[in-house]
Amino acid sequence: GFYLGGKEINEKKYVRNAFVEGDAYFNFGDLMYYDKDYFIYFKDRLGDTFRWKGENVSTNEVANVLTALPFIQDANVYGVEVPGADGRAGMAAILLKDTVEFHTDLLPQIFHHCEENLPVYARPLFLRFIKEMPLTTTHKQKKVQYVKEGFNPALISDPLFRVSAETKTYIPLTTENVSQFMAKSRL
């Protein structure tokens, strides 16, 4: 058995006859979903949704949209605390492809791509451009550190940007303008 606890405990963890009679899948509590071509994907369990404005945001969905852009290698999406706001604001740590130099031209492209492919509440409010994607020993993206650092320019040396609906792009977030942004934005 997989667990010390006898067959009856393990039996609960199996999904039987899921696709064909007699098959058995071990159910680790992961969510499965189908895409339009009926491929099955397993979604990570922990920490992969956060609430913003009363809506559940799927970090995987946002990351998949971002990585569809040809210049993005990987994206680590997480919710950050915003003082006085309802829920957690979406933030993405973005790893560009090796061949791509960061340039501000990329920012409006990210903005428009998110606008076309994500509901308003799921679009990242903050972007952080990272040099490498740290993984845990199980190859899960490390989020804890990022979540802790939030979007605080005083703690983060990576280039930071915030969404600007007025200019339809992302603009630099600095220690000078972060408090202004917090004060005037009705996040």
Automatic annotation (TrEMBL):
GO biological process, one term: long-chain fatty acid import into cell
GO cellular component: endoplasmic reticulum membrane; plasma membrane
Alphabetical list of InterPro entries matching this protein: AMP-bd_C, AMP-bd_C_sf
Domain AMP-binding enzyme C-terminal stretches: 61-140
An MF annotation (GO) of this entry: long-chain fatty acid-CoA ligase activity
Reactions catalysed, as given in the entry: a very long-chain fatty acid + ATP + CoA = a very long-chain fatty acyl-CoA + AMP + diphosphate; tetracosanoate + ATP + CoA = tetracosanoyl-CoA + AMP + diphosphate
UniProt feature coiled coil, ranges: none
Translocase found in the keyword field: no
Record keywords, A-Z: Fatty acid metabolism, Ligase, Lipid metabolism
Protein name in UniProt: long-chain-fatty-acid--CoA ligase
Organism: Magallana gigas
